[in-house]
Structures are given as structure tokens and as C-alpha cells.
Design a protein that fits this description.
- With 343 residues, this protein is α/β, with parallel strands linked by helices.
- The protein is 29% helix and 14% strand.
- α3 links the parallel β2 and β3.
- α6 crosses α12.
């Protein structure tokens, strides 16, 4: 893995031969993409360092596509937990950067590698780390850029775009409907996704239903209810290979999606998106307000303004269920007329 235009090494070629910065972000696709502004800031500030990202191995292609990461160090844990160890070899990293959480587990994991410097948020149980205070009310992109600025590294949370893929989409101009999410609380009902897909197809749009690993049954249910033609489901048994998924999203007319990784991919590629929020406020994880995106969210009076529901709950969140099919179709109409190849 290498940044654009420069030679690099694969992870199997051994430890780094020069100064390195190790970034811990062992989470999902959306987490990787919200960290792009921080990774870009590190790349610009430390051009002679090897930038190593500790993240799940299945994100290797996505990390490469950012053009910012030299090497991926495979690291993962169930859910959003911290990995038990990092398979680091060779000299200690010059800098360790905790973009995984607020510690102490993630901080201690990096500390065990004895980096010369360690960037992280201040924590009462870790007095030796003198970083900024954690704030619960800021957007994920803003949070990590503020962390780096505290350590003297300029960082712009709006610098979230990744290079457009070179390969062509197999379905240019399609509307992508993505009904999956890793928790039921953030999954709008299949019947409503199907109603949206059916209406868009009746209006002449080509509609594809995308699915991540294990989401095939849900995607097929949506496609069947929408009476879409054979071949309308992409993925499901496994994740769609990132190169194919990025090409689909980059040349899509619009993406209809919940609060999940594909929404962040649409933001990173500048693709119009309609994003459906439920238990977590778009203020924390939403697309950039200046982009070609529409956020739908219906909190109730008296709700917690940031996290009114359980993001990992076993049933669709009430705020998500307040979003109607007509609302989604109206939002798509405001976006779908944009020319998908000029972004």
C-alpha cells in the first residue's frame, strides 16, 4: 500500500525502515472515511514518515484508495472494542496516534509499543497523556482534527474527499438503495426501502440494492418487494469489493442509505445522498452540510439532542420510523437531477 505516485511496501515485507507514525482506528468503513481529514493532515505534516494504519484487514483496499496510507497493520476486535494486541515488529513507532477512542484501553495498547510521542485525548486514568479534553458533542471528523491541532498539526475536518476510482461503474447513473446497517436500530424497514425503490423504478430510474456481508437476505427481500429485475442486488454473501463499490457510488445518480458506512462513502466521493438517521444525531455522524446531501431525522421534544436512542438496539429506532416514504422520494427528487459525472 502506498500513497499516490510514491513507491511503497506491502505489509508482508517486514517492519518499517524509517520513521513511522502508527494510527489506531480498528473499526469499520465509515470510521475509516470519517478519519480521512485527520489522515490527510498527518500525511501533509509528516511527509517522510511511513503512515501505518491499524485497522481490520478487510479495509485494506479502502485504505489504499484514500491515497494517504502506506501500510495497513491488520487489527480488529468484535463490535467497537479495542484489539487485544497489535502485530507490530521492528523499532517503536516514532508517533502513535489514538483515533480509536478516548481510552484507556486504546491508549494503553499504543503505549505498549513505546512510541516516542503519543497523541491522544486527556483521560483521568492516564495522567501522562496531556492531550485535549474529550467532547461528546462534536462531529467525528471535527473531533480528530481538533486532537491533531492540539499537537500542532493543522487539520481541516472538511478535507474528507478521496480520489474518484479509475474503473467505470457497471451501472452508471443508477440510484443505489442500501437497506443494511450493523444494528436493527439504524435499519429503516425493508418494506419502506422497497416502496422507495419501486417508485423510483416506475419513474424510469435504474435502481440497485447494495448489501454488505451477511445482508443478502435483506437486500433480496427489498428487491423482491420492489419487483426489481434480476441482477438488481449487488453483494450480500460478502462485502462488495471496495473498488467495485466505490465505482458504483462515484457514478450513482443518488444513494439512499441509513446511518452506516455507505453514507460516508457517498460523502467522500461527493455523490448525492439521502441519509436516514434515528438513534444518533446527524450532528455527530452526518454528511457535510454544504454537500449534495439530504438528512432526514425526526427527534421528539425532550429527546437527548445527541444520542436520543440506542445505536445498537434490537429494533428500529422510533425517530427512524417517523421518516416516511414520501419524504425520502421528495429528497431524492431534489438530488437525482444532478449530472452524476460532473462531480
Amino acid at each position: 500500500m502506498t500513497r499516490a505516485g510514491e513507491p511503497g511496501r506491502a505489509a508482508s515485507e517486514g517492519p518499517p525502515r524509517g520513521p513511522s507514525v502508527l494510527v489506531l482506528r480498528a473499526l469499520g468503513l465509515g470510521d475509516l472515511l470519517t478519519a480521512v481529514p485527520a489522515l490527510r493532515a498527518l500525511r501533509r505534516a509528516l511527509p517522510r514518515h511511513e503512515l501505518v494504519l491499524a485497522a481490520p484487514d478487510r479495509l485494506a483496499e479502502a485504505a489504499r484508495a484514500t491515497g494517504l496510507v502506506d501500510r495497513l497493520l491488520p487489527a480488529s476486535a468484535p463490535g467497537r472494542a479495542v484489539p487485544g494486541e497489535l502485530g507490530w515488529s521492528g523499532p517503536p513507532p516514532d508517533i502513535g496516534v489514538d483515533l480509536h477512542g478516548n481510552g484507556p484501553p486504546s491508549r494503553l495498547l499504543l503505549q505498549r509499543l513505546r512510541p516516542r510521542r503519543l497523541f491522544g485525548f486527556r483521560h483521568a486514568e492516564l495522567p501522562e497523556v496531556t492531550g485535549p479534553h474529550w467532547r461528546a458533542d462534536e462531529h467525528e471528523r471535527v473531533r480528530w482534527c481538533r486532537l491533531l491541532r492540539w499537537y500542532g498539526i493543522p487539520a481541516d475536518p472538511d478535507a474528507l474527499r478521496i480520489p474518484r476510482p479509475v474503473r467505470s461503474s457497471p451501472a452508471p447513473g443508477a440510484v443505489l438503495v442500501h437497506p443494511g446497517a450493523d444494528a436493527a436500530a439504524r435499519r429503516w424497514p425493508a418494506a419502506r426501502f422497497a416502496a422507495v425503490a419501486r417508485a423510483l423504478a416506475a419513474q424510469g430510474h435504474r435502481v440497485l440494492v447494495t448489501a454488505g456481508r451477511g445482508e443478502g437476505a435483506l437486500a433480496r427481500e427489498v428487491a423482491a418487494l420492489a419487483q426489481l429485475p434480476p441482477g438488481a442486488v449487488v453483494g450480500g454473501a460478502e462485502d462488495v469489493p471496495f473498488g467495485e463499490l466505490a465505482a458504483l457510488v462515484a457514478q450513482a445518480r443518488c444513494v439512499v442509505v441509513g446511518d452506516t458506512g455507505l453514507a460516508h462513502l457517498a460523502s467522500a466521493l461527493g455523490t448525492p445522498s439521502v441519509v436516514l438517521f434515528g438513534p444518533v444525531a446527524p450532528r455527530l455522524w452526518g454528511p457535510p452540510p454544504a454537500g449534495p446531501h439530504r438528512v432526514l431525522w425526526h427527534p421528539a421534544p425532550g429527546d437527548d439532542p445527541l444520542r436520543p436512542g440506542d445505536a445498537h438496539g434490537p429494533a428500529p429506532d422510533p425517530r427512524l420510523l417517523r421518516i416516511t416514504v414520501d419524504e425520502v422520494l421528495a429528497a431524492v427528487r431534489t438530488l437525482a437531477g444532478r449530472e452524476p459525472y460532473l462531480r
